[in-house]
Design goal:
The chain is 26% helix and 17% strand. With 401 residues, the protein is of the alpha+beta class. The chain folds into two domains: 259 residues, no CATH class; 100 residues, no CATH class. The strands form two sheets. It has a nine-stranded mixed sheet, sandwiched between helices. A hairpin with a 4-residue loop joins β10 and β11. It is globular, with a radius of gyration of 23 Å. The N and C termini lie far apart (51 Å).
Amino acid sequence: MKFLVESLISAGFGLLLSYGSGVQALETSGAQVARELQALYNDTPANCGTASMPAFLCSGIIFRATVPSTAYKSWAPSPPAVASGGFSFSYLRVDAEFRRLVRDENNGFIIYPPLFAPVGNQKVNILCMFPVDGATNVRAEKGCGVAQGAESNSDLCHRQGIYTAQQWYDKRVADGFSNLSQCGFNVRDDANEKATISFNEAIKAMGLGDSGTIHQQNEMRLATAAWDVNVPETLPIKAFFYLPGGLEDAQYDQKDYFSTTNVLVPVIAMTLPGTRAQDANFVFNAGDQAIKMANPMDGYINYAEWLKRYDPGTRKEEWSLSVVPTDRGRMATAQSTDSVYSELVKRYGDDPRWVNNDGGGMRRQLVCHFNISRNKPEWNLEPFRPNVSHDAAVAAGCNPI
């Protein structure tokens, strides 16, 4: 391990990100990634704000099982997938559970929900959803259409007049539970509100039958055209994961991705539910990392969480960044304000919830909390708030409108 780290440093790759006065912190700590994954897993919205925005855009765990190979990078679609135009992921959520991965693989990578991918990351294009493994390697239309060898109609569900989970399940029973003969739900962006309805029905379909689909992973097809491996540093990879027995391969991927992109992505231990009564878990262990990751407690900010809260000033739901400072951050002096804000921006400033709602007042709110709310457990900072004078911010209780 020491040799690896020293080799990467000598190659010009900095392992830690520095924030003034010798303080070091990660862009996003591994522990925070694990917390965010658990929250995404537990969140079950009907949509992501409007009827035309399916829930996979902002909730659940979208991931791909992989096998390290010298033929191509683990985060790259295989040559057959490139030829087909689509490649396969699975979708895990508290209401969309399964206990094993395809071919019983035990590692891979997790991507950001499309709405929460950092600004500058690529936006994935999700095409269709199968409640169980769709045998998509032998299907037309980028893996979403008719399957070779199917004994009944295997085209997309809506083309067969199948629109509900129960209709999908009835066909599956009639087909003897053949994966080839099942239909996939169309969730393409151009389907608008029908994509949302179709995705929700696919999730419901997973729970039908005596044990639902707990014994078999679902399958989600993504377009390879929207996954540009020529700029891998912009791929929306949130974490590498492993199941029992997969740590070494996950570490390999972490090292390979870092040496290729100079982007440090954490390795997360993922536990799948064994039964419907159990839940998946996501844990960050410092000892699992092939590359040493800095401890955020050495910086100014321990972690932060994005919350959507009703604001009485705007009279609507607004995004708020709930910041938990370290002891060092809580006691920072006026001379350290720039360093604290720099760390805040470095770790959270490229999030769409900040960038798309930026009214310019985040630094002012931070300074205001130092003045009147330093000892609050969390500092709630809202990107939409304007940049006003210090006196105006204090008078508004750090919540100017």
